[in-house]
Amino acid sequence: MNRRDFLKAGALAAAGIGGAIVIEGLDGFNVQAAETKESSKALHAKHWGMVIDVDKFKTPEDFQRVMEACHRYHNVPDIGNPDDEIKWIWPEDFEHTFAELKNPYLSDKIKEMNFPVLCNHCEEPACVRVCPTQATFKRPDGIVAMDFHRCVGCRFCMAACPFGARSFNFGDPRPYIKEINPEVPTRTKGVVEKCTFCVERLEKGLPPACVEASNGAILFGDLNDPDSDVRKILTGNFAVRRKVELGTGPSVYYVIRGGEAGA
Amino acid sequence: MYNGKKIILGLVIFVLFFTSPFLINIGKANEKPEVSLDTPVISQLDEKQCIESAEYMRANHMKLLNEWRDQAVREGQTVYISNSGKKYEISLENGCLECHSNQEQFCDSCHTYSEVEPYCWDCHNGAKGGLDK
């Protein structure tokens, strides 16, 4: 065997052994006989949506109650520093909620009003498009969900989201969680988080935490079903969505009744 | 060879030094990790059987958990049907750790022994009330 043949044979053998190891490794990755199904209690919809009755959020306590219910359930930390703040649902003023509806003669009442804002669970979510790992993805029922296991913390989604609905964990959130809800995981340093429309509660047949705490000010249901609560209130009232001109198709609606609010 | 004695002595010392961990432990059996199944929930079970056979779980729990993670988080499927046809909730906190509430004597004992550091507990809270880390 000359030197040339020896090198050829050696390269071939190395490639063979390496390939075999890789194939073996990949092959062993699946579990056999694993069968899973949905819980029989799970709530279903073709397109989950939310309608917020703005008039029913009158006092700061109304916001506080809803925010706390959400943040306590999901182990959202209260860091206290606006730079590191993590929030899933929070009050925002008119200018920051409906910037495009601003006009020079807005009544003071509207200008000073607050609106609860959260992830809009868009039909064409910009965050999902930019996520390099599919950590954030759109479920068939319209919910823009997060798989925190896959998040690499690149924060493209935060740059893409026009609603500022996403927060980043710059550090370990656990020291800032007053009381940990043991049933729901926390997040860790280096992942992005946001409202998930309480997917884990829907799977157990429960409505989202904010809806439960809102005393009827937030409705939740199937936007595809003409008989659902959300569709009924939308047919009977004037409602707006945030930044529709961007074409992301938010699934969160704000009912504006006028009258009492002075609009 | 120049300085032959010194070189050979040096080599011997070198080899002895680097093989010392093996030489010291020659003939000794390594202490096995103790995996405890003694928890209140398990001791009350009539049939002491995990969701699949112990051998299967020992070899494949990590793959099963990976699969579960995707099924539950991405597909919304939260019920596991075992080979024996029984149904279990797919959940670390509300499933596995409901029985194996002694995380330190169960999960950690093997993982520490084999120097595996799964990052489950970075986010998952572990057994209820066991949030001291």
Structure description:
The complex is a heterodimer of chains A (263) and B (133). Chain A contains nine helices and eleven strands. With 263 residues, chain A is α+β, with helices and mostly antiparallel strands. In chain A, 29% of the residues lie in helices and 15% in strands. In chain A, the strands form four sheets. Chain A has a four-stranded mixed sheet. Chain A has a two-stranded antiparallel ribbon with strand order 3-4. Among the domains of chain B are: 50-90, no CATH class; 92-127, no CATH class. In chain B, 51% of the residues lie in helices and 5% in strands. Chain B contains six helices and two strands; from the N terminus they run H-H-H-E-E-H-H-H. Chain B has helices at 4-24, 40-43, 54-74, 92-99, 104-113, 120-123, and strands at 79-81, 87-89. A two-stranded antiparallel sheet of chain B has the order 1-2. In chain B, strand 1 and strand 2 (87-89) form a beta hairpin. The longest helix of chain B is centred in the N-terminal third of the chain and has 21 residues, at 4-24. The radius of gyration of chain B is 23 Å and the shape is elongated. At the A-B interface, strand 1 of A face helix 3 and strand 1 of B. Strand 1 of chain A pairs antiparallel with strand 1 of chain B, so a sheet runs across the interface.
Envelope shape of chain A? elongated
Count of helical stretches of chain B: 6
Q: How are strands sequenced across the largest beta sheet of chain B?
A: 1-2
Instruction: Note the main sheet of chain B.
Output: 2 strands, antiparallel
Poorly predicted residue ranges of chain A: none
- Distance from N terminus to C terminus of chain A (CA atoms, Å) equals 92 Å
Please identify the structural class of chain B as seen in this structure: mainly alpha
Range of strand content of chain A: 15-25%
Inertia-based shape of chain B: elongated
Number of domains of chain A: 1
Indicate the multimeric state: heterodimer
Average predicted local confidence, pLDDT of chain A = 90
Query: What is the fold named in CATH at topology level of chain A?
Result: Alpha-Beta Plaits
Helix % of chain B is 40-55%
Spatial sequence of strands, sheet with the most strands of chain A? 9-2-11-10
CATH architecture of chain A: 2-Layer Sandwich
Number of strands of chain A: 11
The percent range for strand residues of chain B is under 5%
Question: What are the segments of chain B in which pLDDT stays under 50 over at least 5 consecutive residues?
Answer: none
Helix content of chain A: 25-40%
